[in-house]
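Q: Got a minute? One more chain.
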Amino acid sequence: MDHHPAYYVYLPNYMLEYVVGETNPRIDVDLFLSKATPNQIVEVISAFHPRLRLTRNAEEDHELLLKLFIEKVAPRLSRLISSLNGNKNYIQGLFACPVYKPDQLTSRWINSSADYDPKRIDMFDTGTLMHLRSGKYRLAAESLQHFIESYTFLNQAEIDEIIGAQTDAEDTLHDTSIFLERSVESIKSIHLQLRLPTLSRTERGDLEEELKCAKASLRSRQGMFNAAIEDVGFLRALAKHHDPPKTSTRSKLADREIIGALAEQHEFIKEHRPVKTLNH
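A: Always. Here it is, folded:
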């Protein structure tokens, strides 16, 4: 027997007041909107979209709340299968598919109607953001170019996504640098052991075989490190290029920090480049 995963959303208990139909109970969306307070509308929106953050200004914008509710919540709410349990202060709603994707980790703040453009959000999320999250930064840049052709500029939330990807890339660079250092350390350690005059033929053969594996690992990690440097530099340049002048053109000090970081990475490569001669 097949078992399909269940997906739930938890709604405030006052939603029971808007359940209609005896044989096929459902929540009457129109009835809810006709009686609900702004705070109740915000609560239900947040139940379906917990990472959609509304400022106080947005919460007081009734027209914006209705727009958000009708476009993002109403279609799902009307199909909700409710578990009516009066002993709890919420309704457990069952869905046949996820209410929201678990990889949508970034909160999206909305302050006014100008911040909410469904077509824009969808184009950015399904193109640029999808590639940024999967580490396909060049494809993200191509998608971003098409996006800019339609919308001419990036808002702060979109820029923040690029900066977030940059932070992830910097973490990867840090990790790969550690792996690279460990490979270098391993090779140096084996070299020192090979100098011991008391090694048996078997021990020396084992160490030489271990050295071959360590060299192969070093070449692989050097490639990962170089790719990580390129990713960080590329994302920094991408964020700087699309950062509108009215928001935060990077200061000369910040630019010097970026250049300095890349210079340090370049020196790291130069420092370990002699390891390539170990094959001789």
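A: Residues 201-242 form the longest helix (42 residues).
Q: Perfect, thanks.
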